Amino acid sequence: MLLRSMRRPLYAIRFQLWAAFAALVASTGSACVSAPTPAEVLATGFHSPEQALETFQTALRADLVDLEYRCLSTEFKESHGGFSWLAYDEARRRVLEEEPFFKLVARATVEKRTQLAPNRVRLECRVRFLFQTKSFTIDFVREDAYLVRDAEGPLEGDLLSFEDAVREEDGRLVVRVPFPEGVELEELTGLEIAREWKIAAFAEATLPPVP
Predict the structure, then answer these.
(1) Which residues pair with residue 204 across a beta bridge?
(2) pLDDT band of 81, cuts 50, 70, 90
(3) S-S: 49 plus which of 5, 31, 140, 189, CB 3.0-4.6 Å?
(4) b vs e for 116-145, b when ≥16 Cβ sit within 10 Å of the residue's Cβ?
(5) Burial class, 194, CB count within 10 angstroms (exposed 0-12 / middle 13-18 / buried 19+)
(6) Mean pLDDT, rounded, of the chain
(7) How do 120-129 and 109-117 pair as beta strands?
(8) pLDDT digit string (tens) for 171-181?
C-alpha cells in the first residue's frame, strides 16, 4: 500500500536520489567512518544549519536511517518525486552498495556559511581523505511545523507558518494549530511547535585549494 501511494515508481526515485548523492562522492575512493559516541547522538537536533549537518553526519555514521530521513526537508523530498521513508531506505542501500564512500560526507567540515534568504542557508563543506579533497555545498531550509501527541505517539502534524500560528498576547504565548479529530483534550500528552533546519539540496562546489 505504501509503494502504491508514492507519486513515482520506486526505481525512478532510487535513480534520482542516487544522482543527487553522487555529486558528493565521485572520485573520492572508499573509506570507513567511526561510529558516533553516545554524547554525539544525544546532541542531534535541527536548531541551526550546522547542527542539522552534524545530525545528518551522526545518522550516517550510526546507520540511523530514520534520523537521516528526518534531516531531509519536504522541499528535497518533493524535488525527487515525493519519496517515502521506504523509498529512501532502498535508495540509501543502493547508494552505499555502489558508492560506499558516500559515508565520507560524515567527515566533512564546514568551510563557509552563506545566508541565501531569511529561511535559507548554504554551507560549503570539504572532505579530506588520504591525498584527495572534495568540496560540496548543502542548502538548508527552515521548516516551521507542529506535532500533537497522545500516549500512543504522534496524532497529527504538518508544516505551518510560525508567524500565523504563534503570537504574544497579554504577556502570554498563544499557539493556534488544528485540533485532531476524534480525541478529547485530556487525551493529549504533548504539543510541539518547531522551527527546524532541514536539507534542501546537495551540489558540488569549487572552493579554494587547501593551503
Answers:
(1) 136
(2) confident
(3) 140
(4) eeeebbbbbbbbeeeeeebbbbbbbbbbbb
(5) middle
(6) 82
(7) antiparallel
(8) 999 999 999 99
Which cell numbers in the block locate residue 118? 531569511
Whether residue 207 is predicted with pLDDT greater than 50 in this model: the reply is no
Domain ranges of the chain: 2-32+39-139, 143-196
Distance (Å, rounded) from C-alpha 39 to C-alpha 93?
Answer: 26
The number of residues making up the chain comes to 211
Largest CA distance in the chain: 62
- Residue 50: CB atoms within 10 A of its CB come to 14
Residue-by-residue DSSP string for 170-200? TTEEEE--PPPTT--GGGEEEEEEEEEEEEE
Cell readout for 173 is 504565548
Residues 143, 147, 171, 187: what is their CA dihedral angle, to the nearest 10 degrees?
A: 180
| Whether the predicted pLDDT of 97 surpasses 60 | yes
- DSSP code for 43: T
pLDDT tens-place string over residues 148-160: 999 998 899 888 8
- For residues 109 and 116, give the distance between their C-alpha atoms in angstroms, rounded to a whole number: 20
CA angle 146, 52, 85 (to 5 degrees): 65
